[in-house]
Design a protein that fits this description.
By secondary structure, the protein is of the alpha/beta class. The chain folds into two domains: 248 residues, 3-Layer(aba) Sandwich (Rossmann fold), CATH 3.40.50; 144 residues, 3-Layer(aba) Sandwich (Rossmann fold), CATH 3.40.50.720. The chain is 35% helix and 24% strand. It has 15 helices and 18 strands. Strands 6-7-8-3-9-10 form a six-stranded mixed sheet, sandwiched between helices. Strand 1 and strand 2 form a beta hairpin. Helix 10 runs parallel beside helix 11 and helix 12 crosses helix 13.
Length: 414
């Protein structure tokens, strides 16, 4: 019997169908990623699985039991959710927040028993936050907070763990770390993990199976090799993408080079690109196609832009996965910046892990008068996960640079 069954599930909101006739089976110990464009029903599907929404038709079963017939407390022992947006009370310590996951097992006003405390400790150790147990939640980084929320969900001892975009707002180096953690928990605890993901390459690397949604229906389901094909992605996302295969046989996407008039003269010959998390894919492709000598860094090995740069033969300053930029690599990055005629800063988020890229560029701009171009598509305040430090440095760079509001503006100049 599958651990989770969704049978003929249909959900509508104000007479508009959001999900239609969804059927799927997931076995214990499987990590399933949900992909699809905005509005395709990804979050709505999760919210039907955890019963935050009630379908007009169909049913959800866990270990053969219908969740519609379970009490709220019973359901919380079967399904745990790490939502996309979570408001955390700043007055609680990490251990107190994780202990909240034991509420389904406690009667009203009942104090935690030694068994509950042992389970909480085990969950915190499993996700690597036991050493933070006495810290307040507002003192933690984005990656640490996400680990705490996962620990709280695990403390419910669920059969199914659902996560809505668990890595979208994380610093680049934490994305790989969180997905690897989820993969390991899935296998060791034999639980089902279902996550909405936007990074197709990371979904391909970590997920056992993928679910590709289009207009509220399952367009394709299966292993990554069956789902991530050029034709499937074109039909769902309406974009032509090139598919390559990594050393493990997993499909990986790259953006095709933009079609441009390459007859216009180049003002520069060499460009260094500061990117990450896929923000530099199109730029790297374009610059190489235009004949520029391109370098990039610092990028974590396995990052989407790292793979793109490697595929294109771009010189890359690289650091191990999910590790903050080392002083040695920052110096190497500075050497590439100094060697290049100009630098392009892509529209990337900044956290403690990649803040050194910003500091290195600032030093080059102010000390060496390095000419910099900034792709400023999203306000830095929405991409700053350093409590304002990155925004302050970014604005200093911006005052000494040329800013572009879109990729089209940038390539028109280059």
């Amino acid at each position: 019997m599958p651990g989770l069954e969704v049978k003929n599930l249909t959900y509508s909101y104000k007479k508009r169908k959001i999900l239609e006739d969804i059927c799927l089976e997931i076995n214990s110990g499987e990590f399933v990623g949900i992909l699809g464009p905005n509005g395709s029903g990804k979050t709505t599907l999760l919210n039907n699985i955890n019963r935050w929404l009630i379908p007009q038709k169909g049913s959800v079963l866990i270990d053969g039991k219908r969740i519609q017939s379970m009490s709220t407390k019973t359901l919380a022992k079967y399904v745990a959710t790490v939502p996309q947006e979570t408001s955390l009370d700043l007055g609680f310590t990490v251990e107190e927040i994780v202990m909240m996951g034991r509420n389904p097992y406690l009667r009203n006003f009942e104090r935690e028993k030694p068994e509950d405390k042992a389970i909480v400790e085990e969950c915190m150790k499993a996700v690597g936050v036991w050493n933070l147990k006495d810290r307040y939640i507002n003192e933690l980084s984005g990656g640490e907070k996400q680990r705490v929320l996962i620990a709280r969900a695990l403390a419910q001892q669920p059969k199914v763990l659902v996560l809505d975009e668990p890595i979208s707002h994380l610093d680049i180096n934490f994305k790989w770390e969180i997905l690897e953690l989820l993969k390991n928990l899935c296998k060791t605890l034999k639980i089902i993990v279902i996550a909405v993901l936007h990074d197709i390459n990371l979904a391909s690397i970590f997920c056992d199976k993928l679910l590709l949604l289009k207009n509220g229906k399952i367009f394709k389901a299966g292993i990554p090799q069956e789902v991530i094909t050029e034709q499937n992605l074109f039909e769902v996302f309406n974009v032509r993408l090139k598919i390559t295969v990594d050393s493990d046989g997993r499909p990986m996407i790259t953006f095709p080079q933009p079609v441009q008039n390459f007859q216009k003269p180049r003002e520069f010959e060499s460009v260094h690109v500061i990117c990450g998390g896929g923000a530099g894919e199109k730029i790297l492709h374009y610059l190489k196609a235009r004949g520029y000598k391109v370098s990039a860094g610092v990028l974590n090995i396995g990052d989407t832009d790292w793979k793109t740069a490697k595929d294109l033969g771009v010189d890359v300053v690289e650091d191990p996965p999910f590790s903050p930029i080392s002083e040695e690599k920052a110096k190497e990055n500075r050497a590439y910046i100094d060697k290049a005629e100009v630098v392009i800063l892509c529209n990337i988020p900044f956290g403690n892990g990649n803040l050194r890229n910003l500091l290195t560029l600032k030093d080059a701009v102010f000390e060496s008068k390095k000419r910099a171009f900034v792709l400023n598509e999203t306000p830095i305040e929405q991409r700053d996960y350093t409590n304002g430090l990155a925004a302050k440095i970014y604005c200093q760079i911006l005052n000494k640079s040329v800013a572009f509001n879109s990729f089209e503006e940038l390539i028109d100049f280059f």
